[in-house]
Structure formats: C-alpha cells, structure tokens
TrEMBL record:
Phylogenetic lineage: Bacteria, Pseudomonadati, Thermodesulfobacteriota, Desulfobulbia, Desulfobulbales
Protein name as it appears in the record: DUF1009 domain-containing protein
Positions in coiled-coil regions: none
Pfam families tied to this protein: LpxI_C, LpxI_N
Domain spans labelled LpxI C-terminal: 144-273
InterPro entries given in the database record: LpxI, LpxI_C, LpxI_C_sf, LpxI_N
Domain LpxI N-terminal: 12-141
Length: 286
C-alpha cells in the first residue's frame, strides 16, 4: 500500500499591532517561518498595509480587550505577540474600554507600562493565548554591540554615557521610562509618557547642543513587550537639537533601518554606540 504523508498546516499566530514598521516586519518573518497571521490592528496607530498583509484582521480601538479575545478565539489563535508602538498619552483621551478591559483596569493598582501590559498578557493567557517574545523571528533586529558610526566617543562623552546609564537604569526600575538625556554629567531630561523623541527634543533644547542620549532596558525587562527601540527617527530628533551621542543597550533593544540610521548619524556627526553592561555593573562601550 502507498503511504500518504499528512500535510501539517502551520499554526496561526496572532499579532497585536501598534504603529511603525515592526508589525509588517513580523508578518514577513512569521511567513518565512511557515505561519499564517491573524492581526489585531489599532485604529489611529496601525498602518493599513499591515491589515492588507495579514491573513485575517480585526480593527479595534484602544481598550477593546473583549473584542481581541473573541477574534483570536474565532481564528483559532493559540499564540500571539505584541509588536509596534502605541501612543501612551491616548489613555487620557482616546480609549474605549469594554467590560473585559474595565474589569482588568480596576484590578491594576499602578497604571504604568509594565503593570498594564502584564495584566493584558495575563488575560490573554487565561483565555488560552500564549504571549511570545516579540523578537522570536527577528533576532537580527537586536541592537549590536560597539560603535556603529565613523565617529567614536570622546573621553568626556564616555563619562556622560556612564553617568546617564546609571540614571536611565534607575528610572527604568521605577517604570518611568527608558531614556535620559545628559550633558556634562547633568541630567537635562528624563523620558516619561511622552516617548523617546519628545524627551530627546526637550532635553536637547535645554542642553543647547552636544546632548548625550542613553537608552536602556528596564531591569527585569519582559521581552514580550515594550522593548526599547531606535531608528532613523531617533537620529533625526537628536540631529534637530544638535545632539552628539546615542548610546543604546546592545542585545536588549531593537534597531530599525540600521543602514539609513547610521548614514544619517554620520551625516550629522552623531556617535551611535551599542553598550553592554557586565554582571558587576561595569560597561563595555567599545
């Protein structure tokens, strides 16, 4: 008798998509891994091209948790990822929580990034949807170690990076933000809900020029969501205030459009460097 191989249909993976290019990149990577994709797209955030690229899509407004859960159940989704950005200030003026979201919201004591995202992830997993690390198919997007630009750090800039690193780690521990802007070992701006680009512009204006931007992961950063991310827009923001340095934690953050980003940094005379923190707290900067 002839034997017939049973065709195994790849399991569908869910994508909870925000803004930016990450959702599209993830769809492409998931397809290369042989998986179909069901996308939850956020209105006013997600690029419509993401919906077009998906095998199925459900548009939601911020806070419609019940709709997300129902869509994933209908699509047979057992795993999902959070990819892309959500404008955090929208929680004050553009959110439409449903019953599931309100119930969850009332159980969260501290309304900050990690607490909110962990609570949403918990609700998904309670419904049988496992939340995976957002870099599962895109390890190549992790920020590399070392100097990426033609220009290297000066002695004084290295001191600013070391100083900024400790402060960035401290605000991360409090779940305030991931970025600080420093000059001459003085903190001129701390990232909060406004986001990295706004913090860079505010800090750069205060520093007047030569600002050093340090961006790190939060202590205990959950790789399933809210990884630090940089790209050409970060350089453009820094260049607009005549900033000097972008130092990012290597292997713990995302880097988009590397070639274009480095080219823009070189054109503006900005140093871009990926830094590693040793177990003893010392830094590997070069």
């Amino acid at each position: 008798m002839f034997g017939f191989k049973r065709q195994i249909i790849p399991e569908k993976i869910g994508i909870i998509a925000g803004g930016g290019q990450f959702p599209l990149l993830f769809i492409e990577a998931a397809r290369r891994a042989g998986r179909s994709v069901a996308v939850v797209a956020h209105r006013s955030e997600t690029d419509p091209e993401v919906a077009k690229a998906a095998d199925s899509c459900c548009w939601v407004k911020l806070g419609q948790l019940g709709k997300i859960l129902s869509f994933f159940k209908k699509e047979g989704v057992g795993e999902t990822v959070f990819v892309g950005t959500i404008t955090k200030t929208r929680i004050f003026h553009d959110i439409m929580p449903d019953v599931r979201a309100l119930t969850l919201w009332n159980k969260i004591d501290i309304k900050q990034d990690d607490a909110i995202l962990r609570a949403v992830a918990g609700a998904l997993e309670k419904d049988g949807v496992k939340v995976l690390e957002s870099t599962i198919y895109l390890q190549e997007l992790l920020f590399p170690r070392g100097t990426l630009t033609a220009k290297s750090l000066s002695k004084d800039q290295r001191k600013d990076v070391e100083f900024g690193w400790k402060n960035a780690r401290a605000i991360g521990a409090m779940d305030i933000g991931q970025t600080v802007v420093v000059r001459d070992c003085s903190v001129v701006a701390v990232e909060a809900i406004e986001g990295t680009d706004a913090a860079i512009k505010r800090g750069g204006e205060l520093a007047r020029e030569k600002a050093v931007v340090v961006k790190v992961r939060k202590p205990g950063q959950d790789f399933r969501f809210d990884l630090p991310a940089t790209g050409i827009q970060t350089i453009q923001s820094l260049a607009s205030v005549k900033g000097a340095v972008l130092a990012v934690e290597a292997g713990q953050s995302l880097l988009f459009d590397r070639e274009a980003m480095v080219a823009a940094a070189d054109a503006a005379g900005i140093v871009v460097v990926g830094v590693v923190e040793n177990s003893d707290g010392s830094l590997l900067i070069d």
